[in-house]
Structures are given as structure tokens and as C-alpha cells.
Amino acid sequence: MAKERIKDLLERGVADTDVTVEGWLRTVRHSKNVSFLDISDGSCMAGIQAVAAPELDNYETEIGKLTTGCCVRVAGRLVESPGKGQSYEIQAGRVEVVGYADEDYPLQKKRHSFEFLRTLGHLRMRTNTFGAVMRVRNAAAQAIHRFFQERGFIHLHAPIITLSDCEGAGEMFRVSALDPEQAPRTESGGVDYSQDFFGKEARLTVSGQLEAEIAALALTNVYTFGPTFRSENSNTSRHLAEFWMVEPEMAFCDIQGNMDLAEAFLKGVTRDVLEQCDDDMGFFNQRIDDTVLETLTNIVEQPFERMTYSEAVNILQGSGRSFEYPVSWGVNLQSEHERYIVEEHVGRPVMVIDYPKEIKAFYMYLNDDERTVAALDVLVPKIGEIIGGSQREHRMAQLRQRIRECGLPEEEYWWYLELRRYGTAPHAGFGLGFERLIQFMTGLGNIRDVIPFPRVPGFAEF
Ligand code: ATP
Ligand code: MN
Asked: Using CA atoms, how far apart are residues 28 and 180, in angstroms rounded to an integer?
């Protein structure tokens, strides 16, 4: 008898057929003359109940000893279930124990805190919540690829090890093959990286953007979807040291086209996930945050609000609120400001453009006012910034000027500058933090609970 995923079996929905399933027991109930096994294989939120009668030859010796967490293979007949809350169950003809679970199995049927579950990275995917997170992540990743592929974007595999610091910020992890105890030294006493593996100081990438720009100026529309790393020591509920970033980059595109893409992208991916994961999304809405379904439906149906940074500052200053960080033109918008605008002033996602150049990266397009750059932040309820992007500076003179102003070493960017000499073109793109998106979709409060294996300051277990 061919085995089946529980999801397929429930969708097929034909009763009175022979089936075989394999999975882990979420709960077990033994009564005098029957055992109920609730089996999950992670394919969907629902499990399936198998009913095992004492007539089975291993009932006393094995089935009766089954406990939560055991792994089993059950063959039997799929029948309509008389029980509440399930349409089908299996009348077991055979129950094989694949693996017993010791008595101290930590995931007994009760609610565990997310903090506790983080210490069980090897087991937590067996819980309802993390099973659902994993399926939503999977559906969202597929939806992202589908969105770009349908529009003719080429998937670029950006490097993970890089020599250049994209943003000129000191948040990078070092990559070295030198023995730290016996690293070769230069005459001035520093580590001599010329003797290191790459002959230079190497780091883990914080963004694939600069490489995506190279690709866009040859292939027109591209996107990356890969891991990025930041050693920022921010112990927040929205920052990871290792996270996945989606970065489209488009030639012949300005800030308006960038906003159009960002909006279509968030709408398209959200619509797909709502469609494909309705059970999981229903679970999040019921158990985690009873506003997620409404919020996501709004994302799909309502146009995003668009405003400039200056308008945002005016709104904040006119709000009569006293913020922890006072607002004036030129300051960085803090999470409290972003949330006020999105949640209280507008009530739906907001795209903010044209930030002061002093608070944004060197590569952003300098607007005609020469005070602002064509940056784009997309802000959503509860999360704040979910996307950061910009039109890029494609003019040689302005770019060199900005590199100088930011105090960056021009030599390091030689190829980035050459792209402005050899057939430059206006281009734009953005970066979406994949885990921020999943946080937003699931309503989970902490970003550590939407990635299978979180890496944060002081923690990289499993
Ligand atoms: P923030 O101000 O929230 O730290 P950022 O300005 O550093 O974000 P960008 O450099 O613009 O972010 O990166 C693009 C996107 O990557 C962000 O909009 C966000 O969704 C995501 N992101 C940034 N840093 C992290 C992180 N440490 N963990 C998870 N996602 C992140
Ligand atoms: Mn940051």
C-alpha cells in the first residue's frame, strides 16, 4: 500500500479506501478497548486520527505503550469519522512503531511559551504553530519566485562572501581562514589580511544589491533571494543576525516604477499565501493575532498610501503626540513614528519616499532639490519598515560626490563607478526582509519565531 501525505489524503476525501500514513503522535488516548492516535506528518495543520482496536496483534505489546511524540506507520481503512472536528479517520489494520519517544518528551499537549520552544529548536517544528510557520514560509517563498518569474525577472544568485561593504556600515561578520591565535602581522602590528584566503579582508554580505545592480545593467530585470548577515547588536523582536532578503533590481526604472512594483509585489504574494494556506492562516488569526486576516485582506484590496518624508514629518509634528524621539526634518523615522503614521493616521500600508540624503546610503539618487534622495520605505501595520529601497544614482558626477561626502574609499567601488561610465541607465530596486514579511503575515510578535533556526546575539544553537 503506497503511503500518502495526510494533506493529500484529506483533500482526496474519498472514504472507504485503504491508506497508509507515517507521522508523529500529537496525542494518544488509550481506553479499555480502543486507542486513539492523533497523527501529524507536517503536511497540513490537521492531523488524522487512527483508531486501533485490541484485536491488533501488537496491541498489548506495542500500541498500548505509545505516547505523545512517538513515530508510527499506520495502514488501514479511511472512513468517515463520527467524531467531532474531523471528517475522516483511519480504522487501523496495522500499527507499526517506527520510533518510541522517551517519557520525558518535552512537547506534551499543553501550551508552551515561545521562549521555551526556542530552546527546543530540534523539536519545535512538530508544534502546530511552527508547522504552520514553516508552511507559510514555504508558500511565501514560492509566491515570491512566481511573482518575479511571471514578470520575466531573472533570478540572480548573489555572493555571500564579499569584499565590499555595501552600505559603508560596520555591521558585518568577518570571514577569515587565518588562525586567530597565530595570525600573521603587518609591520604596524595589525592582522595581515594579504595572507588570508582571499588576500584581503572578507565579510559576509549584508545585501545583494550592488551585485544585483551589475546584473540589472545587463539583464534588465533581476531579483536575488538569499541569506544576508548583520552583526548589529540589536536585541529586538525585528532583527536577526542571519535573515533572508529578496531584492529586485530594475533597469529603466525610477522611484515611481519602484513603488508600483513594491505594491504589486506585496499584494501578489499576500494574495497567494492567503489562498494557499487558509487553514494555517485561520490558525494564526484564531490563536496568535485576531487581526491578521483582516490586515492581509486590506493589503490585497486597498491601494497603499504614498507620501514624501517631508509630508510624513508634517503629519508627525501636527499629531499632537509626544514621541520618545522628537521629530524634526532631518531625523530618522523611528519605529514609533512609522507606526503612528501607518496605524493611526492612514490605517493601511504607506510608502514614504524622498528622505534627507544625510540619513540614507550613498548610492541613492539625488533629487533636484539636492537635499533629498529618492529612497523608498514601505511601512506596514505592527512591523513598521518591511521594505527599504531606492532609485539608484546612475550619474557619475553625483555618485562620486556622494561617495566623497560619505567618506567612503572610492577605490573599493571602482567597478560600481565603471558601470556609470559604460552604458549607464536609470535603475531602481528594493530589499524585502523575508522574515519581516512572515512576521507580518502570521502576526507572530518575535522574528525569532518565524525562521527555522534563529541567529541572534548570544544564540546560534541547532
Ligand atoms: P531597520 O531600520 O529595521 O534595521 P534597515 O534600514 O537596516 O532596517 P535595510 O538595510 O533597508 O534595512 O534592509 C532591507 C530590509 O531588510 C528591511 O526593510 C527589513 O525588512 C529587512 N531587515 C533589515 N535588517 C534586518 C535584520 N537584522 N533582521 C531581519 N530583517 C532585516
Ligand atoms: Mn538595520
From this structure: 53
d(CA 219, CA 234): 36
Q: What are 36's strand-pairing partners?
A: 29, 51
Nearest CA to ligand 1 atom 5: 388
On whether the CB atoms of residues 399 and 441 are closer than 8 A, the answer is: no
Pocket lining: 246 vs ligand 1, CB cutoff 6 Å: no
Contacts of residue 137, Cβ cutoff 8 Å, sequence gap at least 6: 434, 438, 450, 452
Q: Which residues of 428-443 are buried (b: 16+ CB within 10 A; e: fewer)?
A: bbbbbbbbbbbbbbbb
- H/E run at residue 281: helix 278-287
- Which numbered atom of ligand 1 lies nearest the CA of 447? 29
Q: Does any ligand 1 atom lie closer than 6 A to the CB of residue 387? A: yes
Q: Which residue has the cell 512572515?
A: 438
The sign of the dihedral angle between the CA atoms of 342, 346, 348, 352 is negative
CA contacts within 13 A on the Cβ side of 453: 5
Cell of 290: 485576531
pLDDT tens readout for residues 51-89: 999 999 999 999 999 999 999 999 999 999 887 778 899
Q: Looking at 110-220, which runs of residues are DSSP E strands?
A: 154-155, 161-162, 174-175, 202-204
Rounded to two decimals, the pTM is 0.95
Protein residue whose Cα sits closest to atom 30 of ligand 1: 433
Atom nearest to 437 CA in ligand 1: 20
Instruction: Report the Cα 236 to chain-centroid distance in Å.
Output: 15
Kindly state the helix (H) or strand (E) to which residue 255 belongs, with its residue range: helix 255-276
* Residue of 144, 236, 360, 385 with the most ligand 1 atoms within 8 Å of its CB, for mutation: 385
Q: H or E element: which one contains 300?
A: helix 292-301
pLDDT (tens digit, 9 = 90+) per residue, 262-282? 999 999 999 999 999 999 999
Look at residues 373, 349, 363, 341 and name the one whose alpha carbon lies nearest to residue 413.
363
Q: CB of 436 closer than 6 A to ligand 1?
A: yes
- Spatial contact of 401 and 364, defined as CB atoms under 8 Å apart: no
In this structure, the residue with its CA closest to atom 20 of ligand 1 is 433
Question: CA-CA distance, 279 to 104, in Å (whole number)?
Answer: 30
Q: Which residues pair with 248 in a beta bridge?
A: 223
Handedness of CA 398, 310, 334, 209 (dihedral sign): negative
